[in-house]
Specification:
Layout: E1 3-6, E2 9-11, E3 13-14, E4 19-20, E5 26-29, E6 32-39, E7 45-50, E8 55-56, H1 68-73, H2 78-89, H3 96-109, H4 114-137
Length: 138
């Protein structure tokens, strides 16, 4: 069964270095561990371990179209689901389609409504396809 095994707190200031995070950025304070029901190529469920001090924006939502941010950010349950997605998207060679599916799974686990979770999943899928097309054009 999919679950968040360990959820860290988040911070915007590193006391050791005196460094502030960038606007709309957070750091994990400890590891985040997520167990997915989605299976890898060996038939085993993905176990995602996001390292301590991992930078994340907790789910970037575009400012366009107007009003979309208001509808989506009213309930912040989706934000923790975005952290494993951010991490997986930064892993070279990790299939983006799988990362997006794990994002959807994690949102549903956090009780994000079916409408909101599908809308956010669709937004990341569209962005993925756009990035793939841009890479091919270069």
């Amino acid at each position: 069964m999919a679950k968040f095994i360990k959820v860290p707190t988040f911070d915007i200031y590193d006391e050791e270095t005196g460094q502030w995070a960038e606007p709309d950025q957070w750091w994990t304070e400890g590891k985040l561990v997520y167990q997915s029901d989605i299976l890898d190529t060996d038939g085993k469920p993905y176990l995602i371990v996001v390292p301590d001090r991992f930078p994340t924006d907790l789910a970037s939502i575009p400012k366009f179209p107007p009003g979309l941010r208001t509808v989506l950010i009213r309930n912040g349950r989706h934000r923790i689901a975005a952290v494993p997605h951010d991490f997986l998207c930064r892993q070279e060679g990790f299939p983006r389609r799988v990362a997006d599916a794990i994002f959807l799974e994690a949102m549903r686990l956090r009780d994000v409504s079916k409408f909101k979770s599908r809308l956010m999943w669709l937004a990341v899928r569209i962005n993925t396809e756009r990035l793939i097309l841009l890479r091919k054009a270069v």
